[in-house]
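Re-running the complex after MR caught last week's input typo. The corrected sequence lines follow. Everything else is unchanged.
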Amino acid sequence: MKLLELTMYNFMPYGGEHRVKFPTDPSQNVAVVFGDNMRGKTSLLNAIRWCLYGYALGRHLKMLDLANMVNADAAARGEHRIAVYLRFEANGHEYDLRRVAEPRELVMTPRNAGDFRIELSLRKDGRVMRGDEVEHELNQLAPEQVSRFFLFDGELLQEYEMLLTEGDAKGEKIKSAIEQVLGVPALLDGRKRLGGLLRQAQAVQAKENKHIAALRGIAEQQIQLQERLAVMGEDLNALEKRARDIESEIESLDERLLATEAVERVKAAVDGLKSQQGALERREEQLREEKLACLRDAWRDLLQPRLELRIRDLSAASEKFRDGLERKGALKERARQLRSILDTTSCVTCGQPLEPAKREQAGAELGRVEGELAEVSADMSRFQQVSEELTRLTKLRSTGAASRLRRIEAEIDQTAVELTAVQTKLARLEEQIRGEDTAEIARIRALRDQRQRNLGKVQKDIETRRDGIDGLTSRQNELARVMSKNTEARSQRSNREVELYGALERVFAQGIDVLRNQLRQGVADLASESFLRLTTEKSYRGLTINENYGLSIIDSHGRTVPMRSAGAEQIVALALIDGLNRTARKSGPIIMDTPLGRLDPKHRTAVLTEVPRMAEQVVLLVHEGEIDKVTGLTPLASRIGAVYDIVRVSSSQSKIEDARTTHS
Amino acid sequence: MSNPDTLGSAPLPAPEEALPVQGTSTRTDRGLDVLLEVRAQIAPELPEELLRQCYAIQKQFQFDREEQLPLVHTRRLVEAFVEREAEARSTERAEVDE
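Corrected-run output:
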């Protein structure tokens, strides 16, 4: 398939009529369209998508409402007709596809898609095709199921990260999409159809063989098995439908949660701040209580200087009294000893008679001691008074309330400042999520989790049913083979049909896994080759693939590189696209919207060098941040067949200009 | 949506007439190659031509939402094949009797 020309009328920012011609020369198969953000690059991609498939995608792959696709200026003038024509060639035929949307009768201002009437027409080599042929023809040329691999933007590239996680629901969807590209559905659907036809043929066979005496019993069993299978088949269909409905509901809930992620983050921050606020308020309360306790004792600080003087005096007096008491005690004891010497004539220790001189000496000392004793004053009552006063006054001593008070007040001020900051931030965040029902978000999250659990249960039931059906089908096939061997039965056509359907079904069934493995490995090999050309890290060995077509980078030691940057992700995704296209699609354009946004200059050059060989025709929608208009096209220069600029006319209007003369 | 009542009159696509689907390989059809290999291994008695034609039908409709049409075509294919076989056997028997 090769695009020839795109014509847009009043489509998104393209008010009036705009045309883009695509290069058709195989040696100059690249078209580059430059456009700043919000000027209309993605709208160009959407024009092709809408023309082919009847829908356009916005951010996060959300479908855009048709009413919002009409150019704003045209709509303001009351012109609500939009049209996109796409001319292309494929398989030696020329096609002209036209999709037009107009307001229905009596609708003045369309508000949603339902207010429009759509006309779709397809001419093949000038001949208008019948309405019922159009969809089938387009499915042969550019199936919608594989469009994500040739009409994609940078956001879609991020989806491929999910492939690395086996079992991820979105990853499973992308895996299914990849298998569509590779042609596996032809075998999957074929097996299913052949299985259904086989059962029908077996039913006919059993009915016919009932008339053959030797086979009556087996035929009866066959009929019973078929009845059971029919019931189980219906159960399985119902379960599968239920699983699909639940998956669809989960997807829808996920979309709502995605939209509320920002709100949830803010809510979490609000909860954190509220908790902080509570802690600060409690601290503030505690400090105020400490301050009060401090103030109760603060008056002592006023007395402190005089009190200390008095306490010092009293302590000195007390000390003096104590010394006096000790001295008195010691003197009394000495006096007692001397008196006892004088009262006896012999030594109290050894019993020897005492010399008169020694007695005289003792007498003299006694006199001195008694004299000193009389001088030592130890007025016990006074000592007691002093002690009591000292005890009282000590209790009145300062507790350092002043310094504590200062510290507490400083901390109160600090806490108040922090509290104000928290409250200000809290108010701002609460304002941000005012009107958002965070309880509703919590409800949706809980509901989503519940649905996921339900889905798990249903999937288990599906597995059980399938196992049951497989068991009964094996039995049925066995019985059918037995019946086919009967000479009388062999002449019946139903037996032959059962044989043929059975063989076809077995071949298709086994073929599925074989094909998947071959294709997956084929994709891995080609993607790996492509990756090695695209990456600037030359020590990498290549890529390895998982069950979901998720690709991992292998380093020089044969190890999987565990984490990769957004830029690396983009390179791997581009390698996967290239691998898929070369494995599956031998012809067809690729239209890439800002595919280089996350790449450094070296990788951009590597990608641009590879781009021309990725498909028969490549259209790059880029802004100057990705490719410099003057120097950035050098790797591609010889392969560029068309260059356009999307030029701003006004905030709601853009136009497309041929820039080839400027950029050649 | 196709009318099942009139589907029987629609001609079957011969394998060579089946449009090469842009979403799948055309030069070497891996799907068909795999089926032929598997047939040789597990069901050599299955007529190759029947397998090719059956695959062509599945491939033709693999992206269509329409379910009835490929079912009817597949059934007609097998019925026609069995019919031709039966006729060939009758003709053989008639020749032998003669």
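None of the earlier attempt is carried over here. The first helix of chain A runs from residue 41 to 53. The mean pLDDT of chain A is 87.
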